[in-house]
Amino acid sequence: MLLYVMRHGPAEDRAASGLDADRALTSAGRDVVKRAANELRRAIGDAHLPRILSSPLRRAQETATILGSIAGTERLSPEVEDDLAADEELPLRLVTELAGRGRDVAIVGHQPTVEHLVRHLSGRHDVLPSGFRTAMVVALVIEGALPGALPTAEIRWVVDPHALG
Asked: Which of 108, 115, 120, 127 places its Cα 20 to 30 Å from the Cα of 88?
């Protein structure tokens, strides 16, 4: 299976409500997410993302919606997953469940969780020398995951939309 781990796009510094959870993508942030989603779409070719899980925070949901509209199956709506919220621990239980199902999936979350997750699953600490930048996508291959066991992954590729121009 392929697990696509994505960090939300660039968001406003402060929401009108004052709540971090309400911070929306900026206009430039939406453009960066579209660039990343288009690059992901090119990378997966004729395939489509069958499922996208998102943090409940607004900026992540907006990112997941854009991702789904470009790289997802027709009428794909992101699913909100509380384990991907900014203040949660690594979503290892969630990833274990997803690997057990064996279907490709994208998850959209926050820093530092997404970076720690990729490093934990891959066992590599050298893959993201500049950190996990906004709207970045890392494709992980998970093979032979045993039911209930934490999977290990190999990094297939990284899309950094900030480096695309």
From this structure: 127
